[in-house]
Specification:
Elements (H helix, E strand, L loop, with lengths): L1 H7 L22 E4 L2 E4 L4 H5 L4 H11 L11 H11 L4 H28 L4 H12 L3 H15 L3 H21 L3 H14 L4 H13 L3 H15 L5 H18 L2 H18 L7 H17 L3 H17 L6 H14 L3 H13 L5 H4 L1 H17 L3 H18 L7 H17 L2 H18 L7 H17 L2 H18 L7 H16 L3 H18 L7 H17 L2 H19 L7 H16 L3 H22 L1
Antiparallel strand pairs: 1-2
């Protein structure tokens, strides 16, 4: 049951906000706009039109338990549910919402049947509620369960379990219609009534996790774990370990995440094996462990687990999870600076099940758009990167319209800020970066050393630096350095710390404090040389070499400036030139070396590199025409 619950918790995101369509002399409650066309639900037009979408027609028929031409158009509750599903949507959006609502409804129906068999005393109430549900009389369904709870409170000692069950059933019904606030209140009521019920605790934990309330999700998951930890219910223990691993992952506590994920995997290997019929579960666990290693920036370990997951899916010839796996692998290659491999896997993801999976899975489209944005940014095609990132933001605004402070929205704002920064629009960049920071300060108020806060401070520091506000740049850079030293206290040679040293050095360089500038960029270089000892052509090393060169240049030490500029150039040519890429950073490096030779009075070498720069700029401008 927990696996089903975990999959369904997320569904209450999409339907919660009321959408209104106003037109004179027509009832607002029955008018919708679908696919750009206006329909009055009290008439047959919408239900006739929807026959153009056989899969949607079938799912609507399943949801309402009758053919569409038999749907009672005088039942306002049915019409309001149709409106919630279809208003201001297109076919693919409606299908996505409908799939989630239908899954949740089927789970509710199965649960009622199960409880009817288990509880004779509760059976009459359940039967009555079930009949109202079948007739789509939702208010009466809730009314009968509330009435039962009201009476049961008078006999608390005898009926508390049934009262909790009724609250739990209401929560699940609200969840099936994606009403977050009511579902949360009733899940909590069930837990308060029966605080040692592992099922309620686990369900509430998963529900809160899906909505970004990680602190409370962890609290209830650990209460659930405490109840079953000393018994032999290994199946439930395995599920809770996996959930706690995901919560710690979301909180940025990656070592704890791995600890619980590996515990879950260990139990699963005892209970089952990789060849068992539940192969998907093995694939999911390997994928989640791979994600944690990716966040820890241990990319080879991440690839190992992602490819284990991929191997299982391909072996069983089941491709429903393939697009997500391809995106995850693509992101690792992006982080490693291997952009062509990243592009290869993203294209695989976008080509897989193109006519069905991509159109009906809004979460995946968000991931795919973000991945394309990152790849285009790495290739220097910033307009295309911005186009895809804006698409990603719009999707996330739909997904989290009930929770405007969800971390995923922060990630979108951060990405847009980064792109505007790269394009030189620092006002817009700072606007989006501060939106990201606000979300992270709210979400992680109980965890001031969260990696997302470090990321926000780092990005704001960089923008202030580019704006020439070095006081604020250093202020935010030191905030992110403090957090990172806590996060990586057991590994002070971490890439993030190197990146921050590099940033601080750059800020001091702009302040003309070259002594401190050189001190910090050399600290960064020392760490990066350890990290990339086996990959000396990584783009991060290129960036450090550039900054060291810039400090020496500012000091008038052109010999050392040239030395590090050529190290920078060698890496960029290795990454970009072999792919015939006219990346802006490669072109600008030719310009920088030309300027160094000019100051060294070496006209021959100045002309050589200046020509490379001018040709590169000409090609770049031609490609934009």
């Amino acid at each position: 049951m927990k696996k089903i619950i975990i999959l369904l918790m997320f569904c209450s995101l999409l339907f919660a906000d009321k959408v209104e369509f106003k037109e004179n002399n027509i009832s607002n409650s029955t008018i919708i706009v679908f696919n750009g066309k206006k329909f009055d639900l009290t008439k047959s037009g919408f239900f006739d039109y929807i026959k153009k979408y056989p899969e949607i027609e079938k799912n609507l028929t399943d949801y309402f338990g009758k053919r569409l031409d038999k749907v009672d158009k005088t039942n306002n509750e049915i019409l309001q549910m149709v409106k919630k599903l279809a208003n201001n949507q297109d076919g693919s959006q409606l299908q996505t919402k409908l799939n989630r609502a239908l899954k949740a409804k089927r789970e509710l129906e199965a649960l009622i049947e199960k409880l009817k068999k288990e509880n004779n005393d509760f059976k009459p109430i359940l039967t009555k509620a079930q009949n109202y549900l079948k007739n789509h009389q939702y208010s009466k369904y809730h009314e009968v369960l509330r009435e039962f709870r009201k009476k049961s409170k008078e006999k608390r000692e005898k009926s508390i379990k049934f009262e909790a069950k009724s609250a739990y059933l209401e929560a699940k019904e609200y969840n099936s219609r994606l009403e977050y606030k009511n579902a949360k209140e009733l899940y909590q009521e069930a837990v308060e009534l029966e605080p040692k019920n592992e099922e309620y605790l686990s369900s509430l934990s998963t529900f809160l996790w899906e909505y970004g309330d990680y602190a409370n999700a962890l609290k209830y998951a650990k209460k659930s774990l405490k109840i079953i930890e000393n018994n032999h219910d290994n199946l439930n223990k395995m599920s809770i370990y996996a959930n706690i691993g995901l919560i710690y992952q979301a909180r940025g506590e990656y070592d704890k995440s791995l600890q619980y994920s590996l515990k879950s995997l260990k139990i699963k290997k005892i209970l089952f094996n990789d060849k068992a019929s539940n192969y998907i579960d093995f694939s999911v666990i390997y994928n989640n462990i791979g994600l944690t290693y990716k966040f820890k920036e241990k990319y080879e370990e991440a690839l190992k687990y992602f490819k284990k997951s991929l191997e299982i899916i391909l072996e069983k010839n089941k491709d429903s999870n393939l697009p997500i796996l391809y995106i995850n692998i693509s992101q690792v290659y992006q982080a490693k600076g291997e952009y062509e491999k990243a592009l290869q896997y993203t294209k695989k993801a976008l080509s897989n099940k193109k006519d069905k999976y991509l159109k009906n899975n809004i979460n995946f489209l968000s991931l795919a758009y973000n991945s394309m944005s990152v790849i285009y940014q790495s290739k220097g095609e910033y307009e295309k990167a911005l186009e895809y990132e804006k698409k990603d933001l719009e999707i996330n605004k739909i997904l989290f319209k009930d929770n405007p402070y969800h971390p995923n929205l922060g990630v979108c704002y951060n990405n847009l800020g980064q792109l505007y920064k790269t394009k030189g629009n620092y006002k817009k960049a700072l606007e989006y970066a501060k939106k990201d920071l606000l979300i992270n300060e709210i979400v992680f108020k109980d965890n001031p050393n969260h990696i997302y806060l470090s990321r926000s401070y780092n990005n704001i520091a960089h923008i202030y630096q580019l704006k020439g506000d070095y006081f604020n740049a250093l202020k935010y850079a030191n905030k992110t350095l403090e957090i990172s030293k806590v996060l990586y206290k057991h590994n002070l040679n971490h890439p993030r710390i190197a990146s921050i040293y590099n940033l601080i050095g750059d800020i001091y360089g702009h302040k003309k404090d070259y002594k401190n500038a050189l001190n910090y960029v050399k600290k960064a270089l020392k760490i990066q040389q350890v990290i990339y000892a086996k990959n000396p052509n990584h783009i991060n090393l290129s960036n450090i070499y550039y900054n060291v060169s810039a400090v020496f240049y500012a000091q008038g030490d052109y010999t050392n400036s040239l030395k590090y500029a050529k190290k920078d150039l060698k890496i960029k040519e290795n990454i970009f030139k072999k792919n015939n890429s006219k990346h802006p950073s490669l072109i600008n490096t030719y310009r920088d070396i030309a300027l160094i030779y000019k100051n060294m009075n070496n006209c021959k070498m100045f002309n050589k590199y200046n020509l490379l720069y001018l040709v590169g700029k000409t090609d770049e401008n031609s490609s934009k025409v």
